[in-house]
TrEMBL record, chain A:
Top-rank lineage group of the source organism: Bacteria
Protein's pathway: Carbohydrate biosynthesis; gluconeogenesis
Catalytic activity line of the entry: L-serine = pyruvate + NH4(+)
Protein name: L-serine deaminase
Coiled-coil stretches: none
Similarity remark: Belongs to the iron-sulfur dependent L-serine dehydratase family.
Statement: the UniProt record of this protein carries the keyword Glycoprotein: no
Residue stretches making up the ACT domain: 146-218
Keyword flag Signal: no
GO BP terms: gluconeogenesis
Species annotation: Agathobacter ruminis
InterPro entries per the UniProt record, alphabetical: ACT-like_dom_sf (IPR045865), ACT_dom (IPR002912), ASB_dom_sf (IPR029009), Fe-S_L-Ser (IPR051318), Fe-S_L-Ser_bsu (IPR004643), Ser_deHydtase_bsu (IPR005131)
Gene name as annotated: sdaAB
TrEMBL record, chain B:
Catalysed conversion reaction: L-serine = pyruvate + NH4(+)
GO MF entries: 4 iron, 4 sulfur cluster binding; L-serine ammonia-lyase activity; metal ion binding
Domain of life, per lineage: Bacteria
Similarity comment: family membership: Belongs to the iron-sulfur dependent L-serine dehydratase family.
Originating species: Agathobacter ruminis
Name recorded for this polypeptide: L-serine dehydratase
Any one of the GO BP annotations: gluconeogenesis
Assigned EC number: 4.3.1.17
Pfam families hit by this protein: SDH_alpha
Cofactors that this protein relies on: [4Fe-4S] cluster
Pathway this chain belongs to: Carbohydrate biosynthesis; gluconeogenesis
Keywords: 4Fe-4S, Gluconeogenesis, Iron, Iron-sulfur, Lyase, Metal-binding
Length: 220, 286
C-alpha cells in the first residue's frame, strides 16, 4: 500500500472490489490471451453473482476484457462497445467451490482460435489475484511483470530458467512451482522486478524441458 | 509509511518541516520518485476530484435505480432561500452528494480513502477553495495532510468496511478531510491531528450495512454526514478546543471496535439498515 492507495486510485465507481477489481481482472485476462477476444464466457461466483449487477461487475469485466483501465469513463457502455468491436460474451452464475467470495471464471477464445481459461478473485481495495490459468495454479497479483512457464517435471528445469533470467539482469521477486503429477506437466509462476523483453521470452521457449511460456506485464 | 500522527507532529515541531512535506518526503522515499513527481501526482488527484464534482449528471440513475439526482434536489432547496444553513455549508452538502451519487452511477471518482466514501474529502476541499480562494498548490499540500492521516489510520486500523465497518470508510474520510481543512486555514500539524481525532471520535462504531450489498443506501447520504462532521471538527480544533484523546489512540480505538463488530455489520448486507423490513423489501425488488 502507498500514499496513492489512500488518496486514489482514480476509478469508475461504485466499488473498488466489485467494479475496479473486476476491470483489472478483465484487463489481465486480455493481456494474458495476447490477442483480441472473439468470445468470452463469464461465470460469476459468490458475491460477484449476488451483487454484481448492481455494482456493474458485469460491465466492468467486459470493459477489462476489451482492454480498458479502471478509470475509463466508457466502462458503463462496455456491452455496446463489445458488440461494436466484435467481441461476443455470455454471463452466468456458477459455484466455484472454496474460493474467495468475489471470484470469476472466464473462458476466452481469441481471434486466432486460441483458448484460455482464467479463475481470478478481487481481494479488496481493487487488488486482485489470478488464481488459475487453464486449470493450473497461478496465484499472482498482476502488479508485477509475470512469467508463466510450462515445463516437464524433470531435474534442472528451474535452474535453467532462473539462470537464463539472471544472465539477462532480471531479478525474481516471487516464484511458485506447481505440478499436476510427478514427472508430468508443471508450471513456474515467476514475478519479476523488471520487464521481460520479447527476445528473452522467445529464448525461454526454446530451453530444454520447456513447452510453453506466457507473459503478463501490467504496463499500459 | 508513518504509523503515528504524533511522530509526524513531533518531527514538524522539531525540524520546522511542515506536516504535508514530511508525508510527501516519505512517499518519495517509498516509491523512489522525485518531489516534483510526487507533487504532480497529488495535484492530479485533486484535479480528478474537481472533475468528479463537475461531471455530475442529475439525470443519471445507478444500475439499481435506487440513487441519483438528489444533489440537484438539494441545490434547488438551497437556492429557494428557505435553507437554514449558509452558503458554505450548503455547498459542502451538495458537493458530497454530487460526488457520492456520481460514484453510485458509475462515473469517474477518486477513492479517498475508498469509493464508498469518495464524496467527503472533495466536498470539504472544493467548498473551501471556492469560498476562500486557496491556490491549487495549497489544496495539493492539504491533500498530502489528508493522505498522511489516512495512511496512519490504515497502518493502525483499517480503511475497509468489510474489516472495520463504515467508521473505517466514512469515519476515516471525515478525519482526513478535517485535518486537511484545518491545514488550509493555517493550522499546525498538532491542530490538524486534533481535528482528525475530533472527527473520527464522532463516527466510531458506525456500521457498514448497505441495502442489498450495494454502495448506495445508506452510503451516499453518509458522505454528507462525514463531510459536515469534518467541517465542525476542524472548526472546533481551529478554535483551540482540544480532543482529550490523541489521534493515534482514537485510531487504535477504531481498530478495537472494528474487531468487536459482528460480520453482519461489516459490508455483508446482513445487518443494520440492510436488515430492516424496508431494506429487505428493496433487495427483493431488485
Amino acid at each position: 500500500m502507498n500514499l496513492f492507495d489512500i488518496v486514489g486510485p482514480v476509478m469508475v465507481g461504485p466499488s473498488s472490489s466489485h467494479t475496479a477489481g473486476a476491470v483489472k481482472i478483465g484487463n489481465v485476462c486480455n493481456k494474458l490471451l495476447g490477442e483480441p477476444i472473439a468470445h468470452a464466457d463469464i461465470y460469476l461466483h459468490g458475491s460477484f453473482a449476488a451483487t454484481g449487477k448492481g455494482h456493474g461487475t458485469d460491465k466492468a469485466l467486459v470493459a477489462g476484457l476489451l482492454g480498458m483501465e479502471v478509470d475509463d469513463i466508457e466502462i458503463p457502455n462496455s456491452f455496446a462497445l463489445a458488440k461494436a468491436r466484435g467481441m461476443a460474451f455470455a454471463i452466468s452464475s456458477v459455484d466455484l467451490g472454496d474460493v474467495h467470495p468475489n471470484s470469476v471464471k472466464i473462458v476466452m477464445q481469441g481471434v486466432s482460435g486460441r483458448v484460455l481459461e482464467v479463475i481470478a478473485s478481487s481481494i479488496g481495495g481493487g487488488r486482485i489475484q489470478i488464481n488459475k490459468l487453464d486449470g493450473c495454479e497461478a496465484n499472482f497479483s498482476g502488479e508485477l511483470p509475470t512469467l508463466i512457464v510450462r515445463n516437464y517435471d524433470q531435474p534442472g528445469c528451474i535452474t535453467t530458467v532462473t539462470g537464463h533470467l539472471g544472465d539477462r539482469g532480471i531479478n525474481i521477486a516471487t516464484m511458485q512451482l506447481h505440478r499436476k503429477n510427478r514427472g508430468g506437466e508443471a508450471t513456474m509462476v515467476i514475478e519479476c522486478d523488471q520487464q521481460v523483453p520479447e527476445e528473452t521470452i522467445q529464448s525461454l521457449e526454446h530451453l530444454e524441458g520447456i513447452y510453453g511460456v506466457a507473459y503478463f506485464s501490467p504496463k499500459k | 509509511m508513518f504509523e503515528s500522527v504524533e511522530i509526524i507532529c513531533r518531527e514538524e515541531a522539531d525540524t520546522g518541516v511542515p506536516f504535508w512535506k514530511l508525508v510527501q518526503l516519505d512517499d518519495c522515499k517509498e516509491r523512489a520518485i522525485s518531489e516534483e513527481a510526487s507533487f504532480a501526482a497529488m495535484q492530479q488527484m485533486y484535479q480528478a476530484m474537481k472533475e468528479s464534482a463537475q461531471n455530475y449528471d442529475e439525470k443519471r440513475k445507478s444500475n439499481s435505480g435506487l440513487v441519483g439526482g438528489e444533489a440537484a434536489v438539494l441545490r434547488k432547496y438551497l437556492d429557494s432561500g428557505d435553507a437554514l444553513v449558509g452558503a458554505f455549508t450548503g455547498r459542502v452538502m451538495e458537493l458530497a452528494l454530487r460526488v457520492a451519487e456520481s460514484n453510485a452511477c458509475m462515473k469517474r471518482i477518486v477513492a479517498a480513502p475508498t469509493a464508498g466514501s469518495c464524496g467527503v474529502v472533495p466536498a470539504v476541499f472544493l467548498a473551501a477553495q471556492e469560498t476562500k480562494g486557496y491556490s491549487d498548490e495549497r489544496m495539493t499540500e492539504a491533500l498530502f495532510v489528508a493522505a498522511g492521516v489516512g495512511s496512519v489510520i490504515a497502518a493502525r486500523a483499517s480503511l475497509s468496511g468489510a474489516e472495520g465497518g463504515c467508521q473505517a470508510e466514512i469515519g476515516a474520510a471525515s478525519a482526513m478531510a478535517a485535518a486537511g481543512l484545518a491545514y488550509l486555514q493555517g493550522a499546525s500539524g498538532d491542530i490538524c491531528a486534533n481535528a482528525a481525532a475530533l472527527a473520527l471520535k464522532n463516527l466510531l462504531g458506525l456500521a457498514c450495512d448497505p441495502v442489498a450489498g450495494l454502495v448506495e443506501i445508506p452510503c451516499v447520504k453518509r458522505n454528507v454526514c462525514g463531510a459536515m462532521n469534518a467541517v465542525t471538527s476542524a472548526e472546533l480544533a481551529l478554535a483551540g478546543i482540544r480532543s482529550a484523546i490523541p489521534a493515534d489512540e482514537v485510531f487504535d480505538a477504531m481498530s478495537a471496535i472494528g474487531k468487536e463488530m459482528s460480520y453482519k455489520i461489516r459490508e455483508s448486507g446482513l445487518g443494520g439498515i440492510a436488515a430492516t423490513p424496508t431494506g429487505q423489501k428493496i433487495k427483493e425488488q431488485l
